[in-house]
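Figure S4 source data
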Amino acid sequence: MDVMELAAELQKLLSIHDKTVKYILDLDSRVCDLNHRSLALINLDKTGQALHMMHKKATLESVREMYKHYRCKKWTEIQKLSKKIMSQLSPEAPNLLPDSIFPEDDGTSEVDERVQHVLKVAMVQQCEFSRYT
């Protein structure tokens, strides 16, 4: 691939990364809103509706974690592609880009970690619900 093709690919990855960050921020605000709504419902003694809101919140938190993982993967791809472009432009130049801030992952434990996270979030939600009822 020539430098122009690599630059186009980098631009595409940066756009994907930017959209993912926006989705994560949107999910953060929605999770916060659902938390406030569930607490308000608990204060109104509408525990069934509050539990429903807490389940929605747990689901959104899981989706947010998936987007965070996706963002990390795209950021790693961006770093690798940037290094490749820099090496093609100036092969003798030292590597100026820092190593990725995200740990390398071979993907073998992704599913187990996600399941553990969902279970942990559900347990925390149930504890919060029990505390307010």
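Figure S5 source data
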Amino acid sequence: MEQDRAVELILIELISSRICHDLVGPVGAVNAGAELMGEAGVADDEALALMRKSGLEAARRLQLFRLAFGRAGNSVDTKSMRDAVAQSFEAEGKVTLQWDEIGIDPAHGRLVLNMVMLAREALPFGGDIRVTRESEGRITVDAAGKRAAFRPDIENVMKNEVSPEELDPRTVHGFFLRNLAHRTGGALSVLQDDGNVALIYD
């Protein structure tokens, strides 16, 4: 019991660090916009536009984190998860997402959302992500783009059993996804080829 609590605490700390890291950029931009208001040579509408854009980006990221890591992801319908990540990618303008209705429950929808988010990390220059489900239930998230690849440390935690003490804020999401796959009754596989990566759940 004590060991389980220690593991949970490590994961909470790392996921919190990851969320804070990903929010620093847009939140900092909101602050920068506020500081620009009233300065000579800077129109207030320009500063407000920066604040609005950055505020929306922060809100989109928070929504994804809420669905991916929070309890809400176990009860929100899959369409809402799909729409949230699609809107985030559309605003970013670097990644296209094809995720049609594949007939899965919220728990598996949350799993796919995390798979899509990890696949996005493998596309440093943007690209295309596609979600498919085969008749026997296998779910595949394919990502293709220039220099598409998972970082070796992230690939390792998705493929292998890793102690939580070995994780850091960058790798904790891959660890979380692997364990989420086990909790939903399946297993996660990782494939990589030149310019293509795939996460497979079956």
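The longest strand covers residues 127-133. The first helix runs from residue 2 to 36.
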